[in-house]
Amino acid sequence: MSKRLLFIVLPTLLLAMMLSACGSQTSWEDEKIAEVSNRIDADNVNTIWTIADGQSSGTGGGKLIRLEIKKQDGTAIDRFDINHEKLLHLIVISKDLSYFNHIHPEYKGNGVFEIQNDFPAGGEYRLIADFKPADGDSMTKMTWAQLDGKTAQPVPVKPDSKLEQVVQGNRVQLTIDRLAANQDTKLQFSIADERTNRPVTDLQPYLGAIGHVVILSEDGERYLHVHAEEGQGSGPDAVFETQFPKSGIYKIWGQFRRNNEVFTSSFVVNVS
Ligand SMILES: [Cu+2]
Predict the structure, then answer these.
(1) What's the gap in Å between 253 CA and the centre of ligand 1?
(2) Full residue range of the structural domain in which residue 232 is found
(3) What CATH number is associated with residue 252?
């Protein structure tokens, strides 16, 4: 923060000195100063979340999630850059990490995004939004939402003894090179067809990459950024890189697309 301040203060001082020295200024200098001081960073962004009763497509937990993105001074941020094919990515996770949804709210203009979601039960949910204001940094904003309604029995979050799972006809195997905090870590998902047992080579790009991976700590406080290695083909392996910030239990969701269908595998690991 102090570095950023220095970036704003120094050029301003310089310009003031130049102005007093020659009594004129160029538009180039004006532009430079505006660029530096207007750049939107996460500290300068407020996200206001509202959840209201919405339409339900069945289970009765239909809610309308609304987020309003503003600067700290209250002005709306109205332009966003597309990132991984969308203006905003919203992750919805129940407190016990058993429910996961990755959705893309509709942009209503004026910094407002909205989407309907069918929650499985009442209780606490983690809502995580990833977006990038135009002329700003990529950022993540999270909140806890308390939903009315009958709560479900919490599912214990226990590390998996075997990192293998079958989802929608796909056998997903996860290999992690090191489960240690503060180290560069590689996650490799290897996918085979459950029926034929053959490694798949027909993964389709999902959100502009080979897949999408989300990681959250057991307490829901640490959301990890995961990057797919570039230039990966269409399977059977998909490699991602991240760093666990602290030891503890984490849940990993790996999403892939095949036969025009997205499937989500999930694994719980213990990081030392
Ligand atoms: Cu997304």
Answers:
(1) 13
(2) 164-271
(3) 2.60.40.1930
Among the candidates 86, 121, 147, a domain finishes at 147
What is the distance between the alpha carbons of residues 255 and 262, in angstroms, rounded to a whole number?
7
Q: What is the rounded radius of gyration, in angstroms, for the C-alpha atoms of the chain?
A: 22
Can you tell me whether residue 221 is helix, strand or coil? coil
- Tell me the pLDDT tens digit for each residue of 7-47: 554 455 444 444 444 444 455 555 555 555 578 899 999 99
Residue 52 CA, ligand 1 centroid: distance in Å:
22
Distance 207 CA to ligand 1 centre (A): 7
Q: What angle do CA 254, 260, 262 make, to 5 degrees?
A: 20
Structure tokens at 164: 């293998």
Alpha carbon of 83 to ligand 1 centroid (Å):
9
> How many Å lie between the centroid of ligand 1 and the Cα of residue 90?
6
- Mapped onto helix, strand or coil, the DSSP state of residue 204 is strand
pTM of the model: 0.84
How far does residue 104's CA lie from ligand 1's centre (Å)? 6
